[in-house]
Design brief:
Elements (H helix, E strand, L loop, with lengths): L2 H8 L12 H11 L5 H14 L9 H5 L6 E7 L6 E7 L8 E3 L3 E7 L2 E9 L2 E10 L4 E4 L5 E6 L5 E7 L3 H4 L3 E4 L4 E2 L1
Parallel strand pairs: 6-11
Antiparallel strand pairs: 1-2, 2-9, 3-10, 4-7, 4-9, 5-6, 5-8
Helix pairs in contact: 2-3
Pfam family, one: CDO_I
Keywords: Dioxygenase, Iron, Metal-binding, Oxidoreductase, Thioether bond
Protein name: Cysteine dioxygenase type I
């Protein structure tokens, strides 16, 4: 669900290119990653950098900001040449969502436009437990690191939502940030 489009869009990226509006963010994330601390602490530090340097929606081209009527879109905006991190723009039309999933590495995200509704889960044997919900609005920044990063995200608004996601790997090299999709029943 969205993974094929993610792969094809990433194939056009030239590693190391920095789009206008991202230079300070890239520099800040590089500094955080180069500290070589654990994933949770890295996510916290990168979250601070994203708060300081959260770009505007026009960091994506006008065409990229339109989205796709069939599924959310993922646009790689930057990939570190050494594969240490990547910055991705996600564009969600109303109602579009991810499956319930976890990640291959730490992730930090910031909402640029619209509303991203996030449902959090905990894996308990043969089912998932609901662990909370967040409505992330423009300017909101959050992050997490495995384990404990199971969620589903959807655009719950009536306009296009745009967010920036920073991952602790070059996801264009591994095809997706998703480690596992969960198709288990959800309780409570």
């Amino acid at each position: 669900m969205g993974v094929k489009k993610e792969v094809s869009e990433m194939a056009t990226l030239v590693r190391g290119d920095v789009r206008p509006g991202l230079r300070d963010l890239v520099t800040g994330v590089r500094g955080a990653v180069d500290r070589h601390v654990g994933w949770r602490e890295t996510a916290l530090i990168v979250g601070g950098e994203l708060r300081r340097h959260l770009p505007t929606p026009d960091v994506l081209t006008a065409e990229e900001r339109i989205g796709d009527p069939d599924q959310y879109q993922c646009h790689t905006l930057y990939a570190a040449p050494d594969g240490a991190f990547s910055i991705v723009g996600l564009v969600w039309r109303p109602g579009q969502m991810t499956p319930i999933h976890d990640h291959v590495t730490w992730c930090v995200f910031g909402v640029l436009q619209g509303i991203e509704h996030e449902e959090l889960y905990v894996h308990e044997g043969d089912h998932l437990l609901s662990a909370g919900v967040n409505d992330n609005l423009p300017g909101d920044v959050s992050g997490f690191a495995p384990p404990g990063d199971i969620h589903r995200v959807r655009n719950s608004g009536d306009t296009t939502a745009i967010s920036i996601h920073i991952y602790g790997t070059d996801i264009s090299r591994i095809d997706s940030s998703v480690r596992r999709v969960y198709e288990l029943p959800v309780r409570g």
